[in-house]
Design brief:
This protein is mostly helical and about 475 residues long. It is about 75% helix and about 0% strand. The chain has 19 helices and two strands. The protein has a two-stranded antiparallel sheet. α4 packs antiparallel against α13. It starts with a helix and ends in a 6-residue tail after the last helix. The structure holds phenylalanine (PHE).
Length: about 475
């Protein structure tokens, strides 16, 4: 019964099918790919990837990030989808069921707990940044980007950040919208909308890349992004790259595991994970190619931080023909992309409250929304009245970002890798993944048994100063 409630939340309204066990599922492979891609592609690709790349010196950081996606992110994604699908439950239930099946310690359930908490904490700042994109949609529509000078673009962004009431207003709109959608269980409708939004977002990013080629600094951007200079790579940068690989693929946060629980048996987990990973990476790299030419053309600072796209893109929209139209469309699409990610982040918490605490979906959404909104105040104030209130040199926003992306996610990913490769029975895993029984499976298992855990542990210890590479 609880499964049905949970699944219907994701599938209500359209494109559902029922598995032999009676559980609702994505109607076909494409629906799942779109939903997972909708979760993966979001602010992480377009807002976060460019600014952390800028802060961490470019090429070498990008290379480490790509390596993390390939050898850690995609294999862990396969494991998460597998655990979700085999257990058909929310993350805590899923980990408990799989541990039981393998005859392992029930404490593995804690991995599910940590994931749910992590998704929740991320959402507390994600809603605030989504609020920035909504606010910029309106600003763009007003024509304010038209011929805007770099200084003025910086001042416009600074003005928004300095105004807590404005930030709060927009993040409230995001929280209410997200929780409304989650309470209604309209995901399938939303995932359908992604059918149109995703291609449009990609098309708009391509328009921006096209514009960027006209700035005369496209080659500088390519060099910045793709010529690794390892002397610029700090130990913390490696941890940031690793954390971002998890963040951008929505791993270790319950999102992919929960969506995986609605996947049908005839979907190849391996193929879909690779497709999602490749698509997500392509969007991030394109965003970089759109933004850095503008940064260099206007003498802006690549390491400007979280405001990078909010300062660079208005300048570009202000120069290009039909910039008001493109600018408005772009920020609308980005807000929608953020919304589909936000929904996937909170679904595990809400479905847990519904399944385990027997709350109604409406009540669960309201409670979660209220807590989220309150926690979001910390991020809102980080950019103005609390900007000097720091803990270990980090504002509230920086601290939550560091705690989730750089600590909880790699740790969660490590535990998932160990669980899937060492604790679960090999023949079960082989059967689920769709890699066949040959070399590919052996390679996956080898990576997950040794490479992934060792890499994560080394990066951790190194960044935290316990070992020196
Ligand atoms: N992957 C999303 C993005 O890149 C963020 C996200 C993290 C979504 C965790 C769900 C869970 O924007």
């Amino acid at each position: 019964m609880s499964d049905a409630i949970n699944a219907s939340a994701v599938n209500a309204g359209s494109s559902t099918a029922v598995s032999a066990g009676g559980r609702l599922q994505w109607s076909n492979r494409l629906t799942f790919i779109l939903a997972a891609a909708g979760s993966a592609v979001g602010l992480g690709n377009i807002w976060k990837f460019p600014y952390i790349t800028g802060e961490n010196g470019g090429g070498a950081f990008v290379l480490v990030y790509l390596a993390c996606i390939l050898v850690i992110g995609i294999p862990v994604m396969m494991a998460e989808i597998m655990i979700g699908r085999r257990s058909q439950q929310n993350p805590t239930g899923a980990m408990a069921a799989m541990a039981k099946e393998a005859g392992a310690n029930p404490l593995w359930k804690g991995v599910g707990w940590m994931a749910i908490l992590c998704g929740f904490l991320i959402l507390s700042f994600y809603t605030v940044i989504s609020g920035w994109t909504l606010s910029y949609t309106v600003t763009s529509l007003s024509g304010a980007f038209s011929n805007i000078a770099p200084d003025a673009a910086g001042a416009m962004f600074g003005g928004m950040l300095a105004d807590p009431a404005q930030l709060l207003l927009w993040s409230t709109v995001v929280v209410v919208t997200t929780m409304y959608i989650v309470s209604r269980g309209l995901h399938a409708g939303l995932e359908k909308a992604i059918n149109y939004m995703m291609p449009l977002l990609v098309a708009l990013v391509l328009v921006m890349v096209g514009y960027a080629t006209s700035t005369g600094h496209f080659v500088d951007a390519i060099e910045f992004l793709f010529t690794p200079d390892f002397s610029k790579l700090s130990t913390e940068a490696v941890l940031v790259a690793l954390g971002h690989a998890f963040f951008t693929l929505s791993l270790a946060s319950g999102a992919i595991m929960t969506y995986g629980s609605y996947v049908s048996k005839d979907t190849s987990i391996a193929k879909t994970s690779i497709m999602i990973g490749v698509f997500d990476t392509a969007v991030a790299l394109l965003a970089g190619l759109a933004i850095f030419p503008i940064v260099f053309a206007y003498g802006l600072e690549p390491g400007a931080g979280p405001g990078l796209i909010f300062v660079t893109l208005p300048i570009a929209f202000g120069q290009m023909p039909y910039g008001t139209l493109f600018g408005t469309l772009f920020f609308v699409m980005l807000s929608m992309a953020a919304l589909t990610s936000a929904i996937s982040m909170i679904e595990p918490t809400v479905s847990w409250l519904v399944e385990k605490r027997k709350m109604s979906r409406g009540k669960a959404s309201a409670v979660v929304g209220l807590i989220l909104w309150t926690l979001g105040l910390g991020t809102v104030f980080s950019f103005n009245i609390w900007q000097d209130a720091t803990l270990f040199g980090k504002t509230f926003f920086d601290a939550i970002d560091f705690l989730t992306a750089n600590l909880m996610m790699p740790l969660g990913g490590l535990l998932v890798a160990l669980f899937a490769a060492w604790v679960m029975k090999s023949n079960v895993v082989k059967d689920e993944l769709g890699l066949g029984g040959g070399l590919l499976f052996t390679a996956w298992q080898f990576v997950m048994r040794f490479i992934t855990p060792i890499a994560i542990i080394v990066v951790f210890l190194n960044a935290l100063g316990f070992i020196k590479l």
